[in-house]
Specification:
single chain; mainly alpha; 2 helices; 92% helix
Length: 89
């Protein structure tokens, strides 16, 4: 196992982590921005108004993209396990 192999696996891992976290993070960002915009326009500063919509939206995002996320993670894991014999040589 060379340093190039380690760097390649690390890059693949970071790419998969970015792809898996993107739907949830983007959803939380968009909903958080919309709620904060609404709060600043109406001057309502209620904590639950900022928290509850984000939790609901993130839950919906996980439900919608969960199947894709699981397939991506399983494919990455299978590819990683398939590389093990070649890395040990």
């Amino acid at each position: 196992m060379t340093d190039t192999d380690v760097i390649e696996i690390a890059m693949q891992t970071m790419t998969v982590a970015l792809k898996l976290s993107a739907p949830v993070l983007v959803t939380a960002l968009v909903v958080g921005f919309a709620v904060s915009l609404f709060q600043s326009m109406t001057q309502i500063q209620e904590f639950t108004l900022a928290f509850v919509p984000k939790v609901v939206a993130v839950g919906i995002a996980v439900l919608v993209s969960g199947n894709w996320m699981m397939h991506t993670l399983v494919n990455f894991t299978e590819d990683l396990f398939a590389m093990v014999p070649g890395l040990l040589a």
